[in-house]
């Protein structure tokens, strides 16, 4: 969602802020701006609808010597995409930026008579006006009083004109991290904006007020008690958040998947068996589990559906997969015998976080699969399995999906071993096959040119359909999502056996159908379904294993993956589907890494 950065120190702040915003562009945004606190107790605001480069050009008109400022990339919620609605917002002596949603902003306007102070359509400006209304010279007391009046999620960075060199911050739900270095103090919504300043950082605790100065950061709770937050270490280099010679982050991250999988799987293999001792995950949570509920959103939910298929087929344990935004408003059928697995790349997805809290209130143990250490979901879970994918910058998730699937496979194997469903030898064999999926991905990536040809056909189509059975159907869901979100080709996934129950009516001449047929036990049925769409004029792109197809008339294009056991084809198949989406978007000349209307991390409802 919105990108936040604040800096106060010994260097001019303008370029630091704008460069930081450029690193946060991947989060999704439609406008950008900065506020600078000058030595003469004045505030300078420069903001503009459009890209960070547009803001950079806007700020070339003069020299800016201020060493204290805040910056923001906005993803519109309240009010349209305009210069006036862009952040920062200034009211009287106060300038601020905000990520989140203020749910009671209209009530605050009425109760405190703020109508005449407001010039934008945003809920954020209401907070600036409220702070200015309450301000009597003490910033911390003002923030403390204002926070008590605000309902909703928020990450706020605030400057008061009469307190030069100081930035104040407070949050609820919406994430922020902070760090100190030789150059000063920095705060941001994401580590990518912090790493050039310090290898150490801390997660801003909820409902604590930060005071950032050039010499350090003080943290206190709402009662005024000073708190010393726990420092964490950034385990990747800034190069990991750069393109490294690739034209787009998404393509780079697709090619990083073999290493991401090795980094996630290998540390959890001890004596050739899956082992979560170093993760602090007690085997008792698996032994006592009678059923599993996976809760997630989007791509993470699709990884959960793959996990469901694997666990149910191997362990015969019921697994439910729930959309987090629906689960959190249900009366879920879970209890102390349910293991709830929540999955989120960022660890800050708001619906998933609230679902986690609901699950814990029902007595369930919660195991989270996340990529970001110290994230809110990680901190609030009973157990955490960190994926080691490194930073994922492209909005469309790729390597996070693969490592989430791998994490589900490791969990399923360990659970089978603990419950006595697998013998040690069976578990070891499972681990070998899981690890062998990595070189299969490396072989699959060599087919990029062939996949480009497919994408050049799909780019001309208004619609595309994905079909599959069993595991292949679970992959089809993610393939359709990827194509939709970055190429804007309308795509749907269907269980192939359902075609005759209505959906085959959508098949017309030359419509692309991406058919997945990697499951040997239902291969014959799947080929019959492919013939049905081919007979109606579809342009069929078949994905199957090397030796599966003897009749070339059943498809227009055939993309092969190396031979392997059915259960482990998901990893190579996922890579093909990601490349199809990537090359289709690129062939259409679209901004692959920043699809319209989308944000990387959804931290507001």
Could you explain the architecture of this structure?
- It is a single chain.
- The termini are close together.
- The longest helix has 21 residues, at 424-444.
- By secondary structure, the chain is an alpha/beta fold.
- Strand 23, helix 16 (471-487) and strand 24 (490-495) form a beta-alpha-beta unit.
- An eight-stranded antiparallel beta sheet has the order 3-2-4-1-10-9-11-15, covered by helices on one side. A seven-stranded antiparallel beta sheet has the order 5-6-7-8-12-13-14.
- It is globular.
- Helix 9 packs parallel to helix 13 (399-418).
Descriptive labels:
alpha/beta, 8-stranded antiparallel sheet, 605 residues, globular
Characterize the main sheet.
8 strands, antiparallel
Calculate the mean pLDDT score and round it: 92
Helix content: 25-40%
- Roughly how many Å is the radius of gyration? 25 Å
Widest sheet, order of strands: 3-2-4-1-10-9-11-15
Summary of the model, kept short:
With 605 residues, this protein is an alpha/beta fold. Helices cover 34% and strands 24% of the residues.
Give the helix/strand layout:
Blueprint: E1 3-9, H1 13-23, E2 31-37, E3 43-49, H2 52-58, E4 68-74, E5 89-91, E6 94-102, H3 105-112, H4 124-134, H5 139-147, E7 152-160, E8 167-172, E9 177-181, E10 184-188, E11 200-203, E12 208-213, E13 216-221, E14 226-227, E15 232-233, H6 249-255, H7 257-265, E16 269-270, E17 273-274, H8 284-287, E18 291-296, H9 298-315, E19 319-323, H10 324-327, E20 338-344, H11 350-361, E21 365-370, H12 376-380, E22 383-386, H13 399-418, H14 424-444, H15 448-458, E23 463-468, H16 471-487, E24 490-495, E25 512-517, H17 523-535, E26 539-545, E27 557-561, H18 570-587
């Amino acid at each position: 969602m919105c990108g936040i950065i604040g800096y106060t120190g010994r260097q001019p702040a303008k370029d630091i802020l704008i460069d930081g915003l450029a690193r946060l562009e991947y989060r999704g945004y439609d406008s950008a701006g900065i506020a600078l606190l000058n030595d003469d107790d004045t505030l300078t605001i420069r903001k503009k609808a459009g890209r960070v480069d547009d803001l950079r050009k806007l700020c070339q008109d003069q020299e800016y010597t201020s060493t204290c400022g805040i910056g923001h990339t906005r993803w519109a919620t309240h009010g349209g995409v305009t210069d006036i609605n862009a952040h920062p917002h200034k009211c009287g002596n106060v300038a601020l930026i905000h990520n989140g949603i203020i749910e009671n902003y209209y009530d605050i306007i009425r109760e405190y008579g703020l109508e005449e102070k407001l010039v934008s359509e945003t809920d954020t400006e209401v907070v600036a006006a409220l702070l200015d209304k309450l301000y009597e010279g003490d910033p911390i007391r003002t923030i403390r009083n204002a926070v008590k009046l605000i309902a909703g999620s928020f990450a706020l960075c605030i400057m008061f004109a009469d307190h030069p060199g100081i930035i104040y911050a407070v949050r609820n739900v919406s994430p922020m991290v902070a760090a100190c270095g030789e150059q000063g103090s920095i705060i941001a919504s994401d580590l990518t904006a912090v790493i050039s300043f310090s290898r150490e950082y801390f997660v801003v605790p909820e409902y604590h007020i930060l005071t950032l100065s050039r010499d350090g950061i003080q943290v206190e709770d709402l009662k005024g008690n000073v708190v010393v937050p726990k420092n964490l270490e950034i385990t990747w280099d800034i190069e990991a958040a750069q393109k490294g010679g690739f034209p787009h982050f998404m393509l780079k991250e697709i090619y990083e998947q073999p290493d991401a999988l090795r980094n996630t799987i290998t540390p959890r293999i001890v004596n050739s068996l899956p082992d979560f001792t170093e993760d602090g995950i007690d085997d008792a949570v698996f032994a006592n589990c009678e059923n599993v509920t996976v809760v997630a959103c989007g791509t993470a939910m699709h990884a959960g559906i793959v996990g469901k298929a694997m666990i149910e087929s191997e362990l015969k344990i019921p697994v439910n997969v729930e959309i987090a935004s629906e689960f959190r408003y249900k009366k879920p059928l879970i209890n102390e015998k349910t293991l709830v697995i929540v999955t989120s790349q960022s660890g800050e997805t708001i619906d998933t976080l609230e679902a986690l809290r609901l699950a814990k209130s029902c007595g369930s143990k919660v195991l989270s699969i996340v990529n970001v250490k110290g994230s809110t979901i990680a901190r609030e879970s009973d157990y955490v399995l960190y994926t080691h994918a490194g930073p994922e910058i492209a909005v469309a998730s790729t390597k996070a999906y693969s490592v989430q699937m791998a994490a589900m496979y490791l969990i399923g194997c360990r659970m089978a071993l603990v419950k006595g469903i697998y013998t040690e030898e069976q578990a070891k064999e499972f681990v070998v096959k899981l690890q062998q999926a990595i070189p299969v991905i490396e072989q699959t990536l060599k087919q990029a040119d062939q996949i480009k040809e497919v994408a050049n056909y799909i780019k001309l189509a208004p619609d595309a359909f994905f079909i599959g059975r069993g595991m292949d159907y679970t992959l089809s869901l993610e393939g359709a999502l990827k194509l939709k979100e970055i190429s804007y080709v309308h795509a749907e996934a269907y269980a192939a056996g359902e075609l005759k129950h209505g959906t085959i009516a959508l098949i017309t001449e030359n419509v692309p159908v991406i058919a997945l047929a990697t499951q040997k036990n239902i291969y014959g049925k799947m080929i019959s379904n492919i013939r049905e769409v081919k007979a109606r004029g579809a342009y069929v792109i078949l994905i199957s294993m090397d030796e599966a197809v003897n009749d070339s008339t059943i498809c227009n294009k055939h993309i092969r993956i190396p031979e392997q056991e059915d259960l482990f084809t998901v990893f190579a198949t996922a890579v093909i589907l990601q490349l199809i989406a990537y090359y289709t978007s690129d062939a259409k000349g679209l901004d692959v890494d920043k699809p319209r209307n989308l944000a990387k991390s959804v931290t507001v409802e």
